[in-house]
Amino acid sequence: MNDTEQLFIAAAVWALIAAAIARFIPNWPGRIAFFAIAVGLPFWELPFGYYNFRLLCNEQGRLQVFETIRPQNSICVGDLDSGSFSGLIRAGFSRIEVTGRSDDPARDLSSGRVIRIPKREIKSEYCLEYPANKSLPWRVLRNDVLIVRASNDKVIARQSQFQWAGMWWQEQASPIFGRGGVCFEDPQRPNFALRDGLAGGVVK
Fold first, then answer.
1. Average pLDDT over residues 136-164
2. Strands 74-77 and 95-98: what pairing?
């Protein structure tokens, strides 16, 4: 069971408890007011936040390619860590240009594929960028993998991961009560899209 399913179950259980308690209030206006406050105060954000989260996932979570990409053997990145290194090696790039820092220069040297290079001397047609933790409405964080054209920094493709913190009390008590949800596609898809080439559009 994922975090979102647990949220809806918790809301349903609490609604039943609130309804049972409300029966002890002698008049209907009081019962309705108590139920609305007891259920609405902690859970009013659930339908709106979840809808917004799912809309972002469905519309922007998949790899979106805005222009046709020809197959590439060379790619550039800013900083190179073990995760991005292994992904690029697995994708089969023969040349990995690093314009920033690397967490393991000895590993890079032994690979025979990694080249430290100033940004102005990049030979690759495309670069990968990883902007992270962009705050969106309804307590959503967005993490992107971007394919950009090296010559002008134009975004050619994007794949996004979304994390929804859930209701206000979940965010305040995090990680005790979990989170609203997370959605993402295979983070290696942009690497293989660059290596193999893709036509423009949303990659199913």
1. 93
2. parallel
Which residues does 187 contact at the CB level (< 8 Å), separation at least 6?
87, 145, 159, 161
**Residue 22, helix vs strand vs coil:** helix
pLDDT computed for residue 38 by the predictor = 82
Phi, psi of 139 (to 5 degrees): 60, 45
Q: If DSSP codes are grouped into helix, strand and coil, which group holds residue 92?
A: coil
Quick one: residue 164, left, alpha or beta (phi over 0 = left, psi -120 to 50 = alpha)?
A: beta
DSSP class per residue in 142-201: EEEEEEEETTT--EEEEEEEEEE--SHHHHHHTTTT--SEEE---TTHHHHHHHH-B-SE
Query: 136 - beta bridge partners?
Result: 140
In the numeric block, the tokens 């979940």 are attached to 170
Position 142 scores a pLDDT of: 95
Q: What is the pLDDT of residues 12-42, one digit of tens each?
A: 887 888 888 888 888 888 888 888 888 877 7
Yes or no: say if 63 and 189 are a contact pair by the CB < 8 Å rule: yes
Could you tell me the two tokens for 109? 């040297």
Pairwise CA distance, residues 204 & 197, whole Å: 15
Cα–Cα distance measured from residue 34 to residue 27, given in angstroms and rounded to the nearest whole number: 11
Do the beta carbons of residue 96 and residue 88 sit within 8 Å?
Answer: yes
Task: Please tell me the predicted confidence (pLDDT) of residue 100.
Answer: 93
| Lookup result for tokens 């809309």 | 55
Cα 5 from Cα 129, distance rounded (Å): 33
